[in-house]
Write a structure and sequence with these properties.
The relative contact order is 0.26. The N and C termini lie close together (about 10 Å). With about 190 residues, the chain is of the alpha/beta class. About 30% of the residues lie in helices and about 30% in strands. GO terms for molecular function: 5-amino-6-(5-phosphoribosylamino)uracil reductase activity. InterPro entries: DHFR-like_dom_sf, RibDG_C, Riboflavin_Biosynth_HTPR.
Length: about 190
């Protein structure tokens, strides 16, 4: 059975975006981080997105057309374009990328079925979408890239009112002060 993995960037104080909705502070600023992230996420061939994250990721649909892109950017663009994407949105009328479908509402049972029927891990991105999956008890793993910035408020990585016991299964430090952490959910009853 596939794992559902919530992977997002977060500030040191636990926010995925600041109070103004910005998250530019989380953009990787050096090639070491870019390359590592792209290699790491290349294993996800199915991605569940909230609308805002999807619209941000649409950059990768045409990134290969921008002149003088480094090879690691071109490689990731091809991987993203080939991935299956499910976007949860009440406002989008049609997808703007290949291999994409729009769902109007989040259905935990359909995600459970997707996990059971899929031979590879599935990424979920977007704090609101992930909150629904966390509250439904279907997230198996948390992966966070912690950026060395405190933003003071905004949209939290974890939803309120949820208790989870986690086990650290991977950590990586980068020269620029960023840290990647990977946790498995203990006692998951899937």
């Amino acid at each position: 059975m596939a794992k559902l993995i919530y992977m997002m960037n977060t500030s040191l104080d636990g926010y995925t975006e600041d109070e103004q909705g910005g998250f530019g502070w989380a953009a990787p600023k050096d090639e070491e981080v870019h390359t590592w992230i792209f290699n790491h996420v290349s294993s996800f061939r199915t991605c569940l997105y909230g609308r805002k994250v999807y619209e941000t990721m649409l950059y990768w649909e045409t990134a290969h057309t921008i002149p003088d892109q480094p090879q690691f950017v071109l490689d990731f663009a091809r991987q993203w374009q080939a991935a299956e994407k499910v976007v949860y949105s009440r406002t989008l009328t049609e997808p703007r990328s290949a291999h994409t479908r729009i769902e109007r509402s989040f259905d935990p049972d359909s995600v459970r079925k997707l996990k059971a029927d899929t031979g590879h891990d599935i990424a979920v991105a977007g704090p609101e979408l992930a909150a629904w999956a966390i509250q439904a008890g279907i997230v198996d793993e948390f992966q966070m890239r912690i950026c060395p910035v405190v933003v003071g408020g905004g949209k939290r990585y974890f939803p309120s009112g949820v208790r989870l016991d986690l086990e650290l299964i991977e950590e990586r430090r980068f020269r620029n002060g960023e840290i990647f952490l990977r946790y498995a959910v203990r006692g998951q009853s899937e």
